[in-house]
TrEMBL record:
InterPro entries: Calcineurin-like_PHP, Metallo-depent_PP-like, Metallophosphoesterase_sf. This is Metallophosphoesterase. It comes from Caballeronia insecticola. Residues 159-327 form the Calcineurin-like phosphoesterase domain. The chain crosses the membrane at residues 7-26, 38-56, 68-88, 108-133. Keywords: Hydrolase, Membrane, Metal-binding, Transmembrane, Transmembrane helix.
Amino acid sequence: MRRSAFFIRFIGIGILFHIYVGVRLIPDAPVGLPLKVLAAALLVASVILIPLGMAARSIEAQPLADRFAWLGLTALGLFSSLLLLTFARDVMLFFVHLVDWLRGVPVGSPLLVAYSALAVPLLAVLFSAIGFYNARRRAPVVSVDVPIENLPAALVGFTIVQISDIHVGPTIKRHYVERIVDAVNGLKPDLIAVTGDVVDGSVPHLADHTRPLAGLSARHGTFLVTGNHEYYSGADKWIAEFRRLGLTVLLNQHVVLNHDGAQAVVAGVTDYGAGSFDPAHRSDPAKAISGAPADAAVRVLLAHQPRSATAAAEAGFTLQLSGHTHGGQFLPWNFFVRLQQPFVAGLVKFNGLWVYTSRGTGYWGPPKRLGAPSEITRVRLVATA
C-alpha cells in the first residue's frame, strides 16, 4: 500500500514537471506548429514511459519487461537533463531580464528567449547520448595507491581489484558482466573485492547473467559483501547463488591471508541498512574483525556504504573499500549524495582510516553516466615515504 502511494505521488510529480518543461519551452521555441505538436507528443510519451519503465520488474514476461525498462529508463535519463536545463534556462533568463530592467532597456531579449528554448532539448539529447555511451562502455581501470605505515615488505605492491554496483538487471546482462570479468582478470590481482549491489532482480531471472562472475580469478580469491539492492532482491537466495559461483561472501566475518609470510586481514560487513530487512544481518564492523590477529599490519574492510567508516575506524581497520554512491552517476545527483553519505568518490583519510569509495562498475536506473565515470579500481598497497 505504501509503495503504491509513493508510485502515485511519483507519477503526479512527474506530470507536473513535464507540464513545466512544456510550458516553458514549446511556446518560445522558434519552430513551426508541426514540430511544437511533436514536442508535446514526446512529452506525453515520456510521462507514460517513465513510470512504465520503473515498474517493469513487476511484469512476468521477462523480454517484455526488459524492453519497457529500456524505454522508460532511457526516457528518465533524457528527461532529467531536459528538466535541469529548463530550470537553468529560467534562472539565466531571470538574471538577463533583471539586468535589462536595471539598465533601463526593454526587457525581453526575444532572440535569447527563442534560441535558448531550442538549445535546451538539443543539449539534453547531446548530454544523454554522451551519458549513454559512458554507461554502456566497459568501465575503465582506475589505479589508486594507498600508503600504509609499517607495511611489511611482502605486502608492498599487494593489489586488490575492486568492482562495485554492477546492478545486473533489466539493462545490464551477461555480456556486460563478461567484459568486466575479462578486464579484472587481466589485471592479475592478489585479491578481488566485490562491494555490493551486484544485482537488481531475482535469482531465477538473473542467475544466468551473473554466472560469468564464477570466472573471476585472483591469487587469494574473490570476496563479496552485500549491498542494499541484494536485500531488495532476496538476499539469502543471492548469497547462496554467489557462494555456488565460488565467491566468498563475508557476512560480518573476516579471513586471514598469508601473503609470502605476511598476514593481512580481509573482513566484510553486510549492508549498512541490512538489519531493517533481517535483524540477523545487522551490519557490525567490530564483529567482523573480532578474533583477527592483533599484529596484522593490514586490516581491510569491505563495506558497501561509505557511512560504515565511523564504526570501521573505531574497530581498528586500516582501509575500507566501499561503493553505493555511483559518484552521483549524473548531474545533478552528484550534489545530493553528501546528504546521505560522508564521501562521494575517491580516497580520503578519516579518523586514521583510509576510505576508498568507488563510483561503481555499472549503473542503476537510467543507462546514463555524466560527470561520474564508472570504474574498475586497482588498489595497490604501498609503504609510506
